[in-house]
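Need residues for this backbone.
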């Protein structure tokens, strides 16, 4: 029997012990990932996921989430979900209850009501304050024609130099290998703050922000989703391991692949990975970024530094 292990982006620390408790009591990797994601989605201090996530251009919180199992490659996702915090639980309902992989917008909200999830205002005083700090600049923009592109480009540039804006993006990743050696991976996010309404990032796109396969391992991303979407980054990491690379080599190669992108919005990218034997690793385009790891032999999670891979000139 394997030693169960969970790997997450640093903001996943609030869910690590719960996830490992699920593994200790014989739960599956999927159970562990969903339990952990629910705690991050409920955390009012995290403005990048679930409740208190930062709103889009119109002040609406729109959540994206996905789950994947490594055994039979089952997957479920929701995107642009409004009014419900439990995006990962809803992704599980898509995976287990519908003959589909991805449900968006109104359909996602309808499914949330049908499955009995609690409807909720996802904004908090603090999240609205952060949102309003830039909303004035965006308030004159009524449509894409009114310069949304230029305003966002400007904002993204400032995000990289203004520490107060660093929290304007973020996502949580969980990868897990359970006692039976089976994998699950999960991602949940409120996406980019001030995003264009209906924008869907990499988090709910299987292969872009999330991928796992029991035979080769798992990977998930945070950072600029459009980059991971264009390079199928999570799937690339797993495929590189399939063809013989170590996890560290696979993560590095997936980051190098992002360098070719013609993208005026290019910004930070981060990947966490777990190889088929349960060895964790993580990379970031920014220095001093961390991730968290906990296995069943540990009393709490361990925060580790990611390898930095330069992707910008
Ligand atoms: N990857 C997320 C998205 O593009 C955001 C982030 O992690 O910063 O929606």
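Answer:
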């Amino acid at each position: 029997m394997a030693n169960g292990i969970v790997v997450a982006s640093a903001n996943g620390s609030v869910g690590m012990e719960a996830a490992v408790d699920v593994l200790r009591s014989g739960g599956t990797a999927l159970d562990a990932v969903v339990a952990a994601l629910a705690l991050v989605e409920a955390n009012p201090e995290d403005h990048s996921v679930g409740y208190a996530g930062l709103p889009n251009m119109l002040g609406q919180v729109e959540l994206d989430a996905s789950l994947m199992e490594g055994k039979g490659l089952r997957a479920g996702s929701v995107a642009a979900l409004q009014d419900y915090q439990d995006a990962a639980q809803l992704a599980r309902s898509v995976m287990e209850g519908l003959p589909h992989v991805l449900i968006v917008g109104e359909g996602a909200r309808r499914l949330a009501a049908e499955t009995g999830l609690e409807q909720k205002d996802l904004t908090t005083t603090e999240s609205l304050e952060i949102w309003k700090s830039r909303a004035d600049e965006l308030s004159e923009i009524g449509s894409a024609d009114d310069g949304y592109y230029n305003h966002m480009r400007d904002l993204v540039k400032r995000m990289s130099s203004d520490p107060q804006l660093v929290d304007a993006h973020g996502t949580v990743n969980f990868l897990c290998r359970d006692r039976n050696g089976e994998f699950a991976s999960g991602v949940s996010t409120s996406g980019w703050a001030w995003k264009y309404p209906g924008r869907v990032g990499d988090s709910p796109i299987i292969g872009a922000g999330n991928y796992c396969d029991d035979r080769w391992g798992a990977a998930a991303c945070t950072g600029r989703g459009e980059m991971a979407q264009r390079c199928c980054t999570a799937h690339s990491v797993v495929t590189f391991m399939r063809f013989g690379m170590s996890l560290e080599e696979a993560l590095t190669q997936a980051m190098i692949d992002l360098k070719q992108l013609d993208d005026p919005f290019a910004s930070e990218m981060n990947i966490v990975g777990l190889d088929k034997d349960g060895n964790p690793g993580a990379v970031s385009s920014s220095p001093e970024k961390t991730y968290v790891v906990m296995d069943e032999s540990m009393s709490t999670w361990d925060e580790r530094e990611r390898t930095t891979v330069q992707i910008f000139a």
